[in-house]
């Protein structure tokens, strides 16, 4: 039995296990569908159960049940042995260390999506219909394929600092630029509160491609008669952009902003890779990991996870509302 | 950006604009010096950091410590530049890094974690789109709403369940977790695509005596290939690039590349020769997949968010 569970360090065994897992899954699904298909005059429930059952089972076991568990945990102490009421939440909103984390998270959610969307929009407008459009878009689009860990390393190298001594050259691009301009090098990742913004740059760098692609598509979808009518009315350049383009792509803007905001909330990879939450850069998602798996404070970790969930809710409600409005207009 | 635009366009003298004329005018407006400068600045900011680390990954360790990567161009001009694959060898096979093992792990994790949720989601999406059962709409809304649950909220109870069943530390929890987390978005997206299939096709198959299973395989699957590709790429990127699940569920023999590299960034933060090579080892696979299948990815992305 253990052979089917644990592959140890043997790569061949790992690949075999992978193939077995897939094969096992295929057999199970085939069996379910076979049974559904064979039954003469099956009830609707039976068929629907066969199709939707596996998904619902996994969702209940993998999302619903654990979420409820975490919710309960958040009212318990660090090892879950006693209920402590709202203590964890009170701590989260009173201790300076946690307040800093909450403040940082708020900054991330307010700044990063807005900047990524803005840059993406501007870039989409600027390169649209230019000769190098495809290539220019690919350049900004590419970071989307890079993991936040990889992007974190790429940017950490940009921020690299070497002591300011004769004979020592800077190896980080940003510090070298400062030196070329006659300044003294800075330990960027240690400078609060600037370091939080420098970490945000990485997320913006990754997400701008997403914003650009979606917004570019919805700009294309603006009916030409609207644009023509506005042009006849004498609008052009910035006026056209502000009065026609922006209102026309409003629904897409909301989708882009909220999607990036949710990514921002859940993403802890960047902070983890670049500073591990030190130097006052931690965010809720990172602190959740820190409390749950480093400090072994399960109750606090659970409370932070629940907070993360609560922060997401208004974003979603806003999103759904905007979508409804857009549909009504249509 | 300034709101005032310098009036550089000459007075209109030509008769009403033709298509070619309009195209020329559009091009002119967009290639204004400001716009071009802006585009170039953004393009540079978005490529130079990656390029710098890429160059670094091919430089000898000592050079990386002593000088910036931009100096290679001057050196190469003077015929001094040395590039080598040494860092990649060290990162992949060196006894203290051994990234090749983690590369295998990433691969072994990703394949089932893409295949399994897509299959399950396809079946569920079909039921939500084409089987008329009671409570369908309610269930679908529930699944849609589950998209917003941050996976953080599920991790600790899941982990203790894995420990209780004795599968913790193997690949099984990682495969399972990724499959479960992918479902809400997968079902929602694939459902949108399935709804777009003309009902006449389904009706025709039904009249021919086909059951739901046959309709699923013979009518839906061929039409859905682009949608499957789109979500497949998305899920592939998500799993391959994931850190959180790998970090929480992985063990020393199952952790993916991202976990090892994030760890190296912490413990060997100054060793840029292995870090740079390591980063590119982890980036290269998603980059190739992404570039090769970009078309599908963009289409899927647009369908997912604009349709809503």
In short:
The complex is a heterodimer of chains A (330) and B (308). By secondary structure, chain A is mostly helical.
Any chance you could write out the topology, listing elements then pairs?
The complex is a heterodimer of chains A (330) and B (308).
Chain A: H1 2-5, H2 11-38, H3 44-73, H4 87-94, H5 96-127, H6 133-141, H7 148-158, H8 173-180, H9 194-220, H10 224-232, H11 237-248, H12 250-266, H13 269-274, H14 284-294, H15 298-329
Chain B: H1 19-30, H2 33-57, H3 61-66, H4 71-77, H5 86-93, H6 99-130, H7 136-146, H8 152-165, H9 171-195, H10 199-207, H11 212-241, H12 244-249, H13 257-267, H14 272-306
Question: Can you put this structure into words, describing what you see?
Answer:
The complex is a heterodimer of chains A (330) and B (308). Chain A is mainly α and 330 residues long. Chain A folds into two domains: 2-73; 87-329, MetI-like fold (Orthogonal Bundle), CATH 1.10.3720.10. Chain A is 74% helix and 0% strand. Chain A contains 15 helices and no strands. Chain A has helices at 2-5, 11-38, 44-73, 87-94, 96-127, 133-141, 148-158, 173-180, 194-220, 224-232, 237-248, 250-266, 269-274, 284-294, 298-329. Chain A is globular, with a radius of gyration of 26 Å. By secondary structure, chain B is an all-alpha fold. Chain B has helices at residues 19-30, 33-57, 61-66, 71-77, 86-93, 99-130, 136-146, 152-165, 171-195, 199-207, 212-241, 244-249, 257-267, 272-306. Chain B has two domains: 21-84, no CATH class; 97-306, MetI-like fold. The model of chain B is unreliable at 1-25 (pLDDT under 50). The interface between A and B is large, with 117 and 121 residues.
């Amino acid at each position: 039995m253990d052979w089917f569970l644990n592959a140890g360090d043997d790569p061949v065994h790992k690949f075999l296990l992978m193939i077995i897992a897939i094969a096992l899954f295929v057999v199970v699904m085939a069996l379910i569908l076979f049974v559904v298909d064979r039954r003469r005059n099956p009830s609707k429930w039976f068929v629907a159960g066969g199709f939707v059952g596996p998904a619902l089972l996994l969702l209940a076991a993998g999302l619903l049940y654990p979420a409820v568990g975490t919710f309960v945990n958040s009212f318990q102490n660090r090892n879950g042995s006693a209920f402590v009421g709202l203590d964890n939440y009170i701590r989260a909103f009173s201790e300076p260390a946690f307040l800093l984390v909450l403040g940082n998270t708020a900054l991330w959610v307010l700044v990063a999506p807005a900047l990524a969307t803005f840059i993406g929009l501007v870039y989409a407008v600027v390169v649209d219909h230019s000769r190098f459009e495809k290539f220019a878009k690919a350049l900004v689009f590419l970071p989307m394929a890079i993991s936040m860990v990889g992007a974190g390393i790429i940017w950490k190298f940009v921020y690299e600092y070497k002591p300011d001594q004769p004979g020592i050259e800077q190896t980080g691009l940003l510090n070298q630029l400062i030196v070329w301009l006659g300044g003294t090098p800075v330990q960027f990742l240690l400078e609060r509160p600037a370091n939080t913004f420098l970490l945000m740059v990485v997320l913006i760098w990754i997400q701008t491609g997403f914003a650009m692609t979606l917004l570019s598509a919805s700009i294309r979808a603006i009916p030409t008669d609207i644009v023509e009518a506005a042009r006849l009315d004498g609008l052009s350049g910035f006026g056209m952009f502000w009065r026609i383009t922006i209102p026309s792509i409003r629904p897409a803007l909301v989708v882009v902003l909220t999607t990036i905001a949710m990514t921002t909330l859940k993403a802890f990879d960047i902070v983890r890779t670049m500073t591990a939450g030190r130097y006052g850069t931690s965010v809720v998602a990172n602190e959740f990991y820190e409390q749950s798996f480093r400090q072994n404070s399960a109750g606090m970790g659970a409370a932070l996870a629940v907070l993360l969930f609560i922060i997401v809710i208004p974003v979603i409600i806003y999103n759904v509302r905007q979508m409804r409005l857009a549909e009504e207009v249509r | 950006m300034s709101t005032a635009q310098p009036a550089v366009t000459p007075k209109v003298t030509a008769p009403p604009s033709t298509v070619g004329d309009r195209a020329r005018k559009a091009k002119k407006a967009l290639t204004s010096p400001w716009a071009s400068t802006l585009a170039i600045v953004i393009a540079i900011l978005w490529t130079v950091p990656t390029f710098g680390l890429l160059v670094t990954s091919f430089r000898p360790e000592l050079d990386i410590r002593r000088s910036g990567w931009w100096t290679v161009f001057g050196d190469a001009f003077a015929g001094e530049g040395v590039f080598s694959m040494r860092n990649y060898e060290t990162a992949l096979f060196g006894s203290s890094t051994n990234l090749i093992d983690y590369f295998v792990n990433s691969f072994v994790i990703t394949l089932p974690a893409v295949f399994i949720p897509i299959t399950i989601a396809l079946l569920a999406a079909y039921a939500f789109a084409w089987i008329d059962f009671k409570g369908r709409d309610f269930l679908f809304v529930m699944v849609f709403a589950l998209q917003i649950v941050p996976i953080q909220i599920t991790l600790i109870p899941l982990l203790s369940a894995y420990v209780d069943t004795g599968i913790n530390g193997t690949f099984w929890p990682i495969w399972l977790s990724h499959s479960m987390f992918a479902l809400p978005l997968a079902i929602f997206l694939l459902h949108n695509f399935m709804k777009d299939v003309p009902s006449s096709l389904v009706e025709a198959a039904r009249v021919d005596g086909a059951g739901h299973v046959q309709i699923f395989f013979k009518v839906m699957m061929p039409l859905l290939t682009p949608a499957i590709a789109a979500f497949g790429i998305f899920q592939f990127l998500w799993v391959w690039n994931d850190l959180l699940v790998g970090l929480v569920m992985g063990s020393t023999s199952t952790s993916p590349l991202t976990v090892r590299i994030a760890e190296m960034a912490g413990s060997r933060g100054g060793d840029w020769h292995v870090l740079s090579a390591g980063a590119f080892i982890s980036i290269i696979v998603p980059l190739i997949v992404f570039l090769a299948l970009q078309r599908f990815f963009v289409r899927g992305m647009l369908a997912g968010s604009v349709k809503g």
